[in-house]
Amino acid sequence: MAKTVAAPIKAVIKLSPEPITQQTIDLPLNEYHALKILALANVSSSQVPRPFDTPSPSIASPISDYDIGIDVNNNNIRDDYERRLLFQYQRPEYVAMGILAAAHWDRLAATYYQQDRIPSITAITLITNNIAINQCYYALQQIDNALVSPIFHYFNTEHRLLIKQQAEDKLLDIIATSAFTVDFEPQPCQRFILLAESMLQTTLTEDELAH
């Protein structure tokens, strides 16, 4: 089982893309930890859900609370978004970043329907994560012109965009009445390290992830 999961990821996704220019930048995740995230999320080019696949009637397909989405391979990543990541990016680091960003966007959008009180610290964390992710992609795009943020592939319908906006407004209203101070990440790409640590459920130092 391990062989069928690990081997295709390295063989299919590692395509030796053009090197990043301008003295070569450090991506927030190196290839090793990117592949670890892909294996954990069960994401592989050899197993990408095809557009014409349909869920088995005997298997309940996970449906997002804030919009309908098909997840044939049951890895908690919407199939259309998973396909887009694998087809658009050659670097496993970029695919892994897209997976981490999607996990955050899931949590962000879920707050729109949340009836319970959302703690101020949660609202601040989600909003600052949001800003850091956007700033990181913008910074990387200044160096790697081939990189495109996957945000509009994730929020790819009017309904999804509306939920995103209303969830952000809800969180900003909570922050406005909070006594907490909002601190912005001076190195926004490092926020992906925290997201990776949370997903991998292990303590990884910045050096381990970046080198």
The outline comes out as globular
N-to-C SSE string, H for helix and E for strand: HHHHHHHHH
- Cα-atom radius of gyration: 18 Å
- How far is it from the N-terminal to the C-terminal residue, by CA? 29 Å
State the helicity in percent bands: 40-55%
- Count of alpha/pi helices: 9
Mean pLDDT: 79
Biggest sheet descriptor: none
Structural class estimated from helices and strands: mainly alpha
* β-strand number: 0
Strand content: under 5%
| Uncertain stretches of 5 or more adjacent residues | 1-15, 52-66, 203-207
Description:
53% of the residues lie in helices and 0% in strands. The protein has 211 residues and is mainly alpha-helical. Helix 2 crosses helix 4, helix 4 crosses helix 7 and helix 5 (120-141) crosses helix 7 (158-176). The longest helix has 22 residues, at 120-141. It is globular and about 50 Å long. The model is unreliable at 1-15, 52-66 and 203-207 (pLDDT under 50).
In short:
The chain has helices at 2-13, 31-40, 79-88, 92-110, 120-141, 151-154, 158-176, 191-200, 206-210. With 211 residues, it is an all-alpha fold.
Which terms summarize this structure?
disordered N terminus; 211 residues; mainly alpha; 0% strand; single chain; 9 helices
Topology at a glance:
Blueprint: H1 2-13, H2 31-40, H3 79-88, H4 92-110, H5 120-141, H6 151-154, H7 158-176, H8 191-200, H9 206-210
